[in-house]
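anyone else get weird line breaks when pasting these?? whatever heres mine. first is seq + tokens for prot A
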Amino acid sequence: MADPPGCCSTCATCLLCPYSCQWITAKKEKRKGLRTTKCDCSWFLFLFCVFLFTLVWLYFAIIILNDFHNFNEFIFRQRKLWLDWSLVLLIATAVLISYSSVLLVLALCLQLCGQPLKLHWVHKILLILTALVVAAAFTGLGIKWAEEWKSARISLQATGPFLHIGTVGGMTLLAWPLASFIYRTRNTGLKVFLLLVYCAAMIALYLAPLGITSPCIMEENQLPPKPALVGHRGAPMLAPENTLMSLQKAVDCDVQIFETDVMVSADGVPFLMHDEELTRTTNVQAVFPERAALNSTAFNWTDLQQLDAGSWFLERRPFPTVQSLSPSDRNETTKQRIPSLGQALEAAKQSNISIMFDLRPENHSDYQNFVNVTLGVILQSGIPLQQVLWLPDGFREDVKQQAPGVQQVYGRKRLKNEKEPVLHVNLPYQDMSSEEIREYRQDNISVNLYVVNQPWLFSVLWCSGVSSVTTNACQVLKEMEHPIWLLPSSTYLMIWIVVDCVSFLVIIWAFVLMK
């Protein structure tokens, strides 16, 4: 195996040292017997597969960031430990992808320099561990968080065209080390096999856009109106969730609907709270340590008013945006208390925004009374009933009779034999395809999807024609005046043809040059 022109002995030695973990000079007499064996080729193939496997996991890790706050809340409910686990995920993923990337680059450079691919046993063990860790991560994702597979499929509508260009570019660059290997090896069968595999992969990539669909491939004059923003528990990145401060911050973000959760105290006062326990968003463990594990509905309104519903936001920092709060906002945060539904309705009425809520817990033995008490507060508040969006399914018919002006929002898709027309639906964004969103829009059915935090996801749903989205990041989505990208089909076709032609010419050039 001869050194190609331009590959100096020092460079070859520097490449061999980290890859083989031993100081081997690149002189021929020092390298007698050091050749790339079939076993070495197998390990290189394994390295390449581990790199791809880790790269796919990196893509998944970035996609699931949209929903990672839910995972943080889940861990807190299970372990009573708050940590932004997305940082742990990203750091671990970055380490794995960096390690496999460096090894792969070293191997490709060694091949171009005509050096033996003698992967050290330490690297072999670490690569096996990397593959096992990533496999475990995918397995855990499939078992505990299966809906994220749907999120990944939706993400391809936003990234598909660019992933295609990137993959074509990466495979095109592989033409150099592949040509180098083919011209050096004497095994004709192996040459033919590698060429056939490479050519088949490139042809598949060149034709891949035939299967790529995205709602954002459209003419600009066909773009639907920007979806309205629904504040998920207010503006939880800017203020403690389900507080009057959070509602006001949502109003400042031009949110049209304040989404919240309502529970009823032991003495019959509806109040805003998401969790069944008070431990995550109040200081109940300090004020009522012996009762901290009780359900929120076990406390009377006087007890609930003693709790601090804001300081936890500064202490735990559920979102990175907490660090950028102004001193005045920090001071206001420490003054927050659990608001009653009546207070929230009054604030919504003054701000002229709608309020949408769930009534929890739906399995409570006194749930019908919860419905009646909540309806009473709504009717007494004086808020225009069309500004109230009712989510709970329990005793919905009673609600229609007592407050016919309240807008009924359904947490399901419409049925074929619907007795009454469904005008509003509220669903996870994974549960509706772009085609279904368009159908509902054509039938004048308002579709709200939750929880949408990332601009790429908001862009896909915007292009699909969704009516509104529930978000934690209203301050980010508010600033978006246009989807991240929008391509006319003719422009995308031109990009596709140009990329494929350039790639083909570069591959031909690589094989001619390496010969």
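and prot B, same format (seq, then tokens)
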Amino acid sequence: MHILLLHKMLFTPEFENTTADPNSIRTLNNILESINEKVAVPPQISFESDYGDAYTQSNQKHFFLEQMRDKTLKMVVPAVEPPYVNYVNFTDAAVTEKGYGPGVVIEILKEIGKRLNLTFEIVPASGSTWGEYLNGSWTGAFGQLVRGEVDLLAGGAIMEYDRSVISDLTYPFQFEPTGIMIRSPEKYEDDTLLIVTEPFSWEVWVITAAVILISGVIFLGMTNILRKVYKEMSVTPFESIWVFFSIFVQQGLPEQPRSWSCRVLVALWWLASITLSATFTGSLVALFAVDKTNLPFQNIEQLVKLVKQGRFEIVMDENSFTRTEMIARSKLPVYRDLWHEMNVNHKVKYVNGISRGVAFVRANPGYALLGPMATLNFYAYSDCKVILLNDGILPVYLSIPLAKHSLYSSYFSTKIREMVERGFTQKWIADYRSYVAMQKINECNSTTVGPKSYLDLKRAQGAFWVFLGGVSIGVTLFVGEFIFKFFRKKMTKHDDGEKPFEEVTTVSPNSIQNIPNTGNLDSIQPSEPPLNENNIADNWSLRRRNVLNLSLDLSRIAN
């Protein structure tokens, strides 16, 4: 196999520290107008064959090998997009020098070139990278392929119907969704109540508090009903709620329930509290072991909401409008809303290449880059200033385009299918991923400090805040109780001063009749028994009874 290098293209992952070059951003109106025209009016192309001739003929075993050997194939490299095209060099020395392979597409061409002894002549790309069908003709790399200037496109092209009409798309070597990349948000810094609130979300805390209250009400009703049957424990409403709060914080009960219904309720609460306690402890350990990053959104639906609110804008590669067309053609509500924001409100920017898009997003918060998932994944591996969301959107198949009715189409598809089924394509991707993961390409990776192995005061302050809060509430209640007792005692004395009374011995008519006639009533003195403890208690009880019965006896005398 030989290669004739007419256009040098090497991949060096460099990231700009400033915003992307303004000259690399194309005029938005022109881009949107061309996409709207293409979406509104389907291209008038004479379809001469079914979709994917090369794909459907991938099982064909009879090839014209003698006619295919020892030929020179002209190819154009539309873009350097790892892991499909890392660099353009077919020699083994380049792999040894760089430490990683040239990419999936170059590896495929390299393997097929060895089998057929082919020579690849690299032709410089003209116009936009991949090209589009505009105004009745194809531009970019596909335009070169249609005009016969090249025999194949060395890159991962998205399989779509328009492209299959003017080229032979090989068997797909990769199924790839569209990734969403944003600038890495700031690390979690607010540790005030980290140790208390972060292990559980606020929904869990609210539900736990509600369950404690509901369980306390149920337990109060059960004890009141069963008190007469099983001589169940007697609790007040506050004590009933406090029972389940004590269970939640793993504290014992001062008195155990006697009925089986109350015992089962308490026992199941113990099991639930053990589970919650273990979950809380595990979440706390994970929280200290891994730095937390708060993402502004988790999926495409949340991103669209932020775009509507003006907090985010979309960034896309101007060299391929396929993903933009997929958004424009989609009937799903989320993509229709996204296209409205892009087309009507112009909340989208187009940059010249994925690398410039990554640099733009890296330097500017509030932007989300949509691009090939695998390519963005490697940028995220090599730079901690950007982050790639796990969930992808708009999945596509990637293939290698060849000239229409090419002699090599079926052979290429068959060999690519064999490589895919035997796992070679995934191995090449995994090898490059391992290389990127081991390299400290960006200074951020080399200076990143790992999570601390100990619990410092900054992260443990939440426990002390809870302790101080408990002390403050306890002291406040302590003072409040004394103030309440003081005012209650004062009010009691005030009521006693408004209603004075003298100790009066109740006199009934019967007792008056039994009084001896002594002639001098003033000389009558009540006989008092000797004072002792029992007499004092009886005398005090009698006085209270006489005071309470005073009004009744006086009314009888009046009658």
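btw re prot B: The longest helix spans residues 457-498. DSSP finds 23 helices and 15 strands in the chain.
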